[in-house]
Amino acid sequence: MNAEIIAVGSELLLGQITNTNAQFMSEHLSELGINVYFHTVVGDNPVRLEEAISIAQQRADLIIFSGGLGPTKDDLTKETIARVLDRSLVTDGVAMASIEAFFASRNRVMTENNRKQALVLENSHVFANHNGMAPGMAVETDTHTYMLFPGPPNELQPMFQFEAKPYLAAKLSDDESIILSHVMHFFGIGESDLEHRIEHILATQTNPTVAPLASAGEVKLRITAKAHTVAEATALNMAMEQQLQQIVGEYQYGINDDTLISKTVELLQRHELTLSVAESLTAGLMQAELADIQGISAVLAGGVVVYNEDVKVEQLGIARETIDTYSVVSGEVAAAMATNVREKFGTCVGVGLTGAAGPEPHGDQPPGTVYIGIDVNGHVETYKLNLHGLRNTVRIRAVKYACHYLMQQLVKNGYNK
Amino acid sequence: MNAEIIAVGSELLLGQITNTNAQFMSEHLSELGINVYFHTVVGDNPVRLEEAISIAQQRADLIIFSGGLGPTKDDLTKETIARVLDRSLVTDGVAMASIEAFFASRNRVMTENNRKQALVLENSHVFANHNGMAPGMAVETDTHTYMLFPGPPNELQPMFQFEAKPYLAAKLSDDESIILSHVMHFFGIGESDLEHRIEHILATQTNPTVAPLASAGEVKLRITAKAHTVAEATALNMAMEQQLQQIVGEYQYGINDDTLISKTVELLQRHELTLSVAESLTAGLMQAELADIQGISAVLAGGVVVYNEDVKVEQLGIARETIDTYSVVSGEVAAAMATNVREKFGTCVGVGLTGAAGPEPHGDQPPGTVYIGIDVNGHVETYKLNLHGLRNTVRIRAVKYACHYLMQQLVKNGYNK
Asked: Which residue among A15, A30, A42 places its CB closest to the CB of B24?
């Protein structure tokens, strides 16, 4: 099955937003073995959209649309496709009910134009929108499958992954050759270093292929096998994963959807350990990311954000002498933060983060200097980092390193992975 | 002048990377008043690339390519365009010299395939690559302008901005009008409601145009004027902004690059107010976002993350009776959190956030129920929200509402904007 993704929205052509939806859907389509041959972006213009549709009809049998399902006049994807396919638009009762409920729950009056959002193409398979109002849908004709999704990524992504992807998987006949991807996640090794170590594999591998991908201080290896059955493809990927692990396995922390945060929480949960965090430069970022994981409340008691010096002393009982002697950006302060928050919150594990996020240096400490303290049942270790990048990049990477070192310390203290 | 951007690269169609180049170039092209009508992404496939080129030739007079200029066999953008335009490829001496210098500087032997990178279309205007090896180029025919750029954003972006953009600006004749955009940010009003109120303007406006854009609980209005001078365009935008303010001004919080967080910090800074935050469901997210703003340390003292019930009692002194009587997800607890954190940290302002992020309800409180407490010098207000969406969406929106209500309370307490 060959697909084309058509994103509808003038804001994309004006460069106001990036077409992340196409990337997200393409990744999932390639996992299904569906070849995506073209991405198209077209503005909120019915004539040009029709033009794009007729071109796509000639070169794809699955045509996926994102955007243009909203209540405003600019939103004309459904209307244009209805015209092209000569189908009428009908109100979907379930969608209408959920839109009315949406407004009722906000004690707001629903304006007329919102009814438009409940319109779907007749005889279409409707995908519910659990994060917004406009539903998605799939329409089958003799020649093509058309799928429509709302533009906001937080609405499109779960709808595509959990409703549309199974719908497509069911459509795929068995003789369809399968493309299956498997991702290995690495931390603590640079992209070029990792590539260098597996050069011989990268050079010779054809099936499965191995593609390195670097992002925000992490490196991924995407292993992609082509086969006739899922079992066959899985076996090819697994064999390659083992081969790679023998070379760079020490740096691997997870696979597929794993993140440093999710693996850290997993390890803490497995050993029923509780955690508290004291954050300075990251100012709550680590706790916020931890709390994005369901069921975290059994692990994360909480913590403090001690953004200025006095607060570190008054709220966390960091000795003024420690700060004066070693400076507030020091291993000693990071260690004290970890221990004091652990004792204060009565948890098994305490983490302390202090540093200079930048752009200004902190005293003689250049921006990007970060100290992390880890206290596991009273056993304290501290780490120093020299990170590069913008203020926010430094803070994001500091949290990743904190997870990385925390897992190291847990293992070192007998809490095995 | 109408443009189409064609990105060449199978990694885009596999969803391994996002097409940020199209966004970057589109933004700069719109500043030049060049209309971008289509983005296309095509794989490393000469047949499909030729197909995409012939389609673009019919609908654009400026065709911009990104990617496929590298040394590998997959890189075939130049070769394909040479064939389509029936032009030969010639070695560019300057490019060749810089490629040789690149290898020399790294004491590495230059492999043959790298010579390929110095090839350019005959009679083309060459753009030097200061961040890589493959040069960019512009080719003029009687009917079209073709521009080629390397795929890596760190190579394409400076090349496009500092070499290609001036090249294009020079091409634009004086009678070409300039386009200037101005963005108004709104919060606390839905997209459809806002659009409904300014319907008559949206229906009749042609210059400047007014386009609504919704994202993550906010609504923007992009006002875009066409004129012969910047002054003229600015005046048109300003007049429209005032007209819109008379109708929906009460919901506007900022313009252009403003965010709810940045405006909140601005207001606190102007009145030299200090802030502390007690977070439950958001678990540090509000403080983390505040801390992303430079110079925040004068405003944000810090705060606590009180993720479980005991911690709320022990660390923040919330009365157990209050929790037992009203539940931990209640206005009473949110208010107590705001007041207690303010007193504990000795700040002027305290904010408390508690709620059920979901997916499970909290007792009889459905997921998405959020209470926000705001304490300004002892004057406390609480707010209840019913938010929809995934766990993380709820938390992100809760922080936006906290900023929104905090600014309201500051103004109400005499700290004017």
From this structure: A15
